[in-house]
């Protein structure tokens, strides 16, 4: 099975969550669109310990850290949905999106449309900050109205019971993991949280 990691916004922790998922499931990793450096594939490689995971090449790599549609335009290029073809592998793939759900990749399509094009269910990363309830529930509303399958939520950041509980209640999505605010991120930390994720993965 493949998994598409998306979020309620930019800098939400998708790359960290992707690394935890890759380590937990011993899945492959693929970042279809990379805009700017550092490369997320490089970051995930540095955080994963298992020897099964393969890292697949990006479909598009752009120099500037911007919305994919803008980054592509800057380089006089264009992104089309049919650019994205699942890498050949016998393993599961964790696919990391770019930015949030409705980040445009061109004038017509959004990042979430890549998941729809590939028929891949979504894992939604919710970083906890003032305003995240509104941003999360707007995202959830869009996903539900567009019949995008969602496996669950990963909360990321300093715990906030009221925010987490209302999001869980209103979304109806399963909470897969609650990642605290981490002062240190390395292979050992990722392995610890990968083991924690597996405790709830099959519930």
From TrEMBL:
Catalyzes a mechanistically unusual reaction, the ATP-dependent insertion of CO2 between the N7 and N8 nitrogen atoms of 7,8-diaminopelargonic acid (DAPA, also called 7,8-diammoniononanoate) to form a ureido ring. Keywords: ATP-binding, Biotin biosynthesis, Cytoplasm, Ligase, Magnesium, Metal-binding, Nucleotide-binding. It catalyses: (7R,8S)-7,8-diammoniononanoate + CO2 + ATP = (4R,5S)-dethiobiotin + ADP + phosphate + 3 H(+). Belongs to the dethiobiotin synthetase family. GO terms for cellular component: cytosol. GO terms for biological process: biotin biosynthetic process. It comes from the Bacteria. The active site is at residue 31. This is ATP-dependent dethiobiotin synthetase BioD. Mg(2+) binds at residues 15, 40, 96. Homodimer. Its cofactor is Mg(2+).
